[in-house]
Amino acid sequence: AKAENVRLKSALGALAVEGGEYSRVVAENERLRAALEYERKSPGEWIVAEILSFGGGSADISKTLRAGKGSVHGVCEGAIVEAPEGLVGRVVSVSPNTCEILLITDSSLKVSCFIQGERRIAGILSGGSDDFLTMRFIKPGAVIPPRAKVFTSGLGGVFPAGIEVGTFCTDGESGSGTETGKGEVVSGGLVQPAVDFTTLEDVFIRK
Known about the structure:
Oligomer: single chain
Radius of gyration: 22 Å
């Protein structure tokens, strides 16, 4: 009886491992299917890269990530990086088989954007925290629809126009703003990123 119990426990353990492996394979297939569908529907040429780690060579682990494609795959420094949900960031360094991506949550990365509404409301987006970005230089008094979507404007020629960035979270007017040392009025609010960086597994790098 003791031997039978040991055998049954081993069999149950094997079944548990097989069940876990099956679930992992199903999840992997769904992830890859979603990636292929996004690549098919999105114009342009893409390099799909799996995320290897967060942090890369940066001390600030939450602001960069390392992906598993590099120069031998056609990745170039400065390339724009997206996910099906929206803008991820920009490639800042490349090795033969990996690249490091600066996320839009980093305050050093500035993105010209517009808030969608009856009239486009322009502004400059930069990092804030992991949960919220900061959008500034919005025209004071501009009326912003509740939960309005924010997209790249294409101004400056760095980021193509029309990539979703997030959702503007300050409802109503943009506010009176504060004056900088240069006499500029900085008015803005918070933007919730479209991409959940904590669950990101693959990215799309523009060629």
